[in-house]
What does this fold into?
Amino acid sequence: MVDVLTIEHLYVEVEGKEILKDINLEVKSNEIHAIMGPNGAGKSSLAQAIMGHPRYKITKGDVKINGESILGLSTDKRAQKGLFISLQYPIGLQGITLFTLVRASLTALKYKPTDPSQKPNLPLPQIRKDLEFYLKKLGLDDSFINRYVNEGFSGGEKKKSEIVQMAMIKPKFAILDETDSGLDIDGIKIVASAIMDISRRETGLILITHYNRLLQFIRPDYVHILMDGRIVETGPAELADLLEQKGYDWFKKGL
Amino acid sequence: MTKVELSFDYSKYNFRDYVEYEVKFPKGLTEEIVREISRIKDEPSWMEEFRVKAYRIFAEKPMPTWGVDLSSINFDEFCYYARPTSKKGRSWEEVPDYIKRTFEALGIPEAERKFLAGVGAQYESEVVYHNIKKELEKLGVVFLDTDTALKEYPEIFKKYFGTVVPPNDNKFAALNSAVWSGGSFIYVPEGVKVDLPLQAYFRINAQNMGQFERTLIIAEPYSEVHYIEGCTAPIYASNSLHSAVVEIIAKKGAKVRYTTIQNWSVDVYNLVTKRAHAYEAATVEWVDANIGSKATMKYPSVYLLGKYARGEVLSVAFAGRGQHQDTGSKMFHLAPYTSSRITAKSVSKDGGRTSYRGLVHVAKGARGVKSSVRCDALLLDEKSKTDTYPYNEILEDDATVTHEATVGKISDDQLFYLMSRGISETEALNMIVLGFFEPFIKELPMEYAVEMNRLLRLEMTGAVG
It folds into this structure.
C-alpha cells in the first residue's frame, strides 16, 4: 500500500516570528523528494515542525498522513504513525546506548504489548543481529551498539548512526535533514547507497540539503526550492543540477 | 547478557509485621537505658563504659545546625532497642517464620543462593541471620554480626573498634556508640580475596524505631572484599531514626569496596557516619546510593594514611517530594602520592532537594597528591532544588586538585530526539534519568543494577511515598 504525507498551506512561527509560509507538499511512500535552499531558508524548521518539536508553532494549515491530520499528536505518536526524522545536529544521550535506544524505540513502535501489564516480547537476538548488519553497511563497527548515542561520535558517525536507526525502524516517511553534512565523499557514497537499500522505495524520503552532492547518488523524483520560508520552485532532479551550476543568488534574481 | 530479576516489587517494601517482641524498651534514652542495653547483651565492662561515655558526649553535643533540617527530631519519641528474637540463625530454618517471610519477600535468601558469598540480615536492633560460605570460613574470613564478634574475637575487636570513628566525632556517631546494636563484622586475612560480595540487609519494622547498627571491616594486607548493604522500612506517619557507624581499616595493598543501596521509607532520618583508613597502596571505594529516607546526611570519607593509597567515592542521590539528600564525601590526603576521586550525581523531582557537601584536605608534607571532584545535578522541575558545598584545604603547592560541577535540566531537544523514535515522554524521561545514573549503575553487580533501575523507574513514576 502506498501511504501519503500531505502538507497543506502550512504556516509556522518561532518565538512569534513567521518562518514558514504557505508550504504545500505531497509525498508518497514510494517517492523521493529533495528540499533545497540557502542557509536560513527554513529547511530544518520545516522538518522539525512536521515532527512536532515544541519550539515550532503551527499557526495555519495542516499535516496529514493518509488524509488524517497529525497536528494534534505528540512527537512520539507521530513517529508511531510512521514518521522519522534524522536531525541535522543529533544530540548526545548520556548513558543511553544505541542498543537501549533502539530497543525502547522498537518496543514503542512494533512490539507494544496490547495488555500494558505484560512485558513486550522483543526478539532481542534478532535486533542485535540487525543492528550489527546495518552498522556494517554504514561502515561502523559493532562497538557502536554499546556506545552512548552521539557521545564522542564524529560528525559523520552521528549521521551514519541516524541512518542505522532509520533502518531498524523502517518508517513510512523519513525526513533526512542535512544527512550529507559532516561526511566526506566516500562517506556520502556509503550513506547514499545505504539509504537506497533501506528505503527500497517503501519509505518516502524527504532529503533536506544545501548542496547537490547527496542528490548525485540519490536521484530525487522532485526537487523543491525553499527560500525565505516559501517553496519557490518545484521541478525534476535536473533542477538541483541547475541550482548547483548557477547558485542561489542567480536563482533568487530570476524570481 | 544474563538477567536475574529479584522477585519483588516496590509495594512489597511497604508491609509491616505485627510482632511480639522478646524485648522492647520504652521510648526515650537515659544513661540507665544505655547500661541496660549493655547488660542485656552481656557485654564486657569496657564496652559498657564506652557506651556510657559516648552517651554523655551525645547528651552534651548540640544538634548540628547545618545540612538537613533536624528540628523535628525528638529523641524521646524513639525506641532505642527492640529484639524480636534472641536466636541468630545460620540457616534460614532457624529464623522465626514471620521474619523469614519478610526477608523472602525482599528476595534475600534467593540472592544468597545465587550470587553472594555471605549474608547478614538485621531486623530492628538485632541480627537474626548470618551465614558465610564454608570455603571462605576455612580461609579464615570472618563475617559475623558485630555483637557476636565482640564475644568471639574480643582482642581484634577491642584493637580496632571506635578507632576510625571515635564517639566524639559528631552527635550521631556518639549516639550510635552509646546504643549500637547489630551490624556486620568482617575480617579478611592477609592475601585472601573474597570474590563474591558479602551482603547485609537492614530492616526496620516498628514505628518510631531507632536502628543503630555498627559495622567494622578489617582488611589485612593485600586482601580484597566487597560488602553490600541494603535497607528498607514500611511507611508510618511518624519518624524513625537510622544512625549507623561504619569503620573500615584497609591495610597495605588491600582493596575494599563498600556498596550501599539506601531505600528507607520517607519517614526515616538517615544520619550515618562512614569512614575508612587506607594504608600504603590500599584502595577504598564507597559506592553509595541514597534513594529513600526523609532526610539523609552522609559523607563517606577516606583517610589516606600511606603512600599511594587511593580513595574513591561514587555517590548518587534521588530526592522526591519532601526528601532532602545531603550527601557527599571527605578525602583526607595525609601521605604523599595519594589520590582520590569523588563523583556525585543527583536528581531532584517534585520539590525534592539534594546537596553535595565535600571536603578535600591535603596535609602539609603530602606531596604529589591528585584529587578530582565532579558533581552533576539534574533538576526535573522548577520546584526542586540542588546546592553544592565544596571545601578544599590544600597545604601542599604541588597537589593537583580539580573540581567540576554542573546543574542541568532535561532539554526539549533531548526529549524531542527520543520521542521522535516513538518513545513516550514518560519513558523518555526515565531513560534520560537512568542514563544520567548509568556511570553508577554499571559499577553495581548485575543483579543490583537491575534492581536499581527498577527502583529509579518507580521513583520517577511517583509510585513511592
